[in-house]
Amino acid sequence: MYFTTNDIQARRDRLAARWDQVLLSDEAVLVHSGKPIGRPGGLDQTYTFLPHPAYFWLTGRRREEEVVLYSRNTGWQEFQKIPPPEQAVWEGEKVDLLVNEPGQTLEQLTGYLQAQGFKTLYQLGQSEQAVTGKAFELRTLLDQTRRVKDAAEVRLIRELAGIAAKGYAVIEKTVAPGITEREIQVAYESEIYRQGAHTVPYDSIVGAGTNSAILHALPTLKKVGPQELVLVDAGADIYDYCVDITRTYVSGTPDSRQKALYQLVLDVQLQCMALTKAGAWWRDIHGRAATLFTQGLLELGILKGSMDSLVEKEVVSLFFPHGLGHLVGLRVRDTGHEENLSPKAYFGARLRVDLQLEPGHLITVEPGLYFIKALLDDPARIAPFKDNIDFNELAHWKNIGGVRIEDNVLVTETGNENLTEAVYKAASL
Ligand code: GLY
Ligand code: MN
Ligand code: MN
Question: Which stretches make up the Peptidase M24 domain (predicted)?
Fold first, then answer.
């Protein structure tokens, strides 16, 4: 049992304390679990149903078209669906309730709302349309509350990290010249399923050689060469909770550039993880990574000019074009959207979250450096930086690919804890 009734009650208490500050006594919030999404042209086929994370977090229930209601006068009220009898015929007795509390049936919801005479209903969850005004404020409070992970969630994420660690241990033995990217994916995924993962939280990323510079490279039948970087970004998922991990390997003996690139990314990752603490602004830690990478690329002779001008021109975005990380835990992109509706670019990268860290936040720290053909061969992208790049030196690096290293760091009261520490990470190539 991953979550108990007490865990769920504690979450509801935390949220109610915040909602009570803005809700009037004749207002209610309805959080929906959502509906399955039909596959276009797929007749009765739907995509796998995932309950809205807010609903799942508040109820421990995973059934479609359910509602949990909150108002100051009524407290929490559940409206649950009775599965149609034919469901058991097609799907068996689904174990889709982690926490089973007696609720009212969904059919009783309309009558209940009328009897209570609420003046305003705020609809959240998968059935929500554009959420604006006070509904937006309530959703932001909900997201801010649930992004602080509780002990039961952290336990589950630790379990997932253990599962992923076993998968990565298999990769360690599998990466070798001649193996395909697809075989690496299959080796990893078969191990995590064997160890209890329900699914993968996103399509596993495997890129060998130049493909390691494709940020979300999907594995192909390309064979790993004799001396290539191999980047694997793969997670594990149980009931929508997940880890999001990246490791980079080399097939055979690394050359000096592969070693230097790996070392630089690892150093930056370790420094940024050390900065991932309560009170820190995420944009500042991203900025630190971007500055350290600029310095490193200058020392490697790929960039030229003064540090001040390189930093000011944000040339690093050619080689580090993404943000340093994102909140993770319940889904691979956990909350953080509300406070970042128009993402700002820092050092040329738009950040997925732009917030100040608090104890309980779980965030990926995933710096990477890449030699991306789509950027480096684009005259328009290169033009502003013509004087800042040593093109003779760059030519030696262009086919090397990329390195990313990603862990999931829990911010604590006293510092932080790397929950994916168990996944082996080489100290050097
Ligand atoms: N796994 C994709 C990412 O790290 O964002
Ligand atoms: Mn990742
Ligand atoms: Mn990530």
Answer: 156-413
Q: What is the pLDDT of residues 338-365, one digit of tens each?
A: 888 888 999 999 999 999 999 999 999 9
In the structure, which protein residues have their CB atom closer than 6 angstroms to any atom of ligand 1?
Answer: 202, 233, 244, 366, 406
- Please report which ligand is nearest the Cα atom of 203: 1
Ligand 1 binding pocket mutation candidate from 202, 245, 328, 409 (most atoms within 8 A of CB): 202
Ligand nearest to the CA of 215: 1
Asked if residue 201 has pLDDT above 80, the reply is: yes
How does pLDDT run across 226-246, given as a tens digit for each residue? 999 999 999 999 999 999 999
37 neighbors 48 (Cβ within 8 angstroms): no
Q: What residues contact residue 57 under an 8 Å CB cut-off, 6+ apart? A: 11, 146, 330
Distances (CA, A) of 72 to 22, 123, 144, 423: 10, 16, 20, 45
The atom of ligand 1 lying closest to the CA of 322 is: 5
**Antiparallel, parallel or unpaired: β 241-250 and 229-238:** antiparallel
pTM of the model: 0.96
User: Given the DSSP bridges, would you call strands 362-365 and 368-370 parallel, antiparallel or unpaired?
Assistant: unpaired
Ligand 1 atom nearest residue 406's Cα: 4
CB neighbour burial string for 37-47, b if at least 16 within 10 angstroms, e if fewer: eeeeeeeeeee
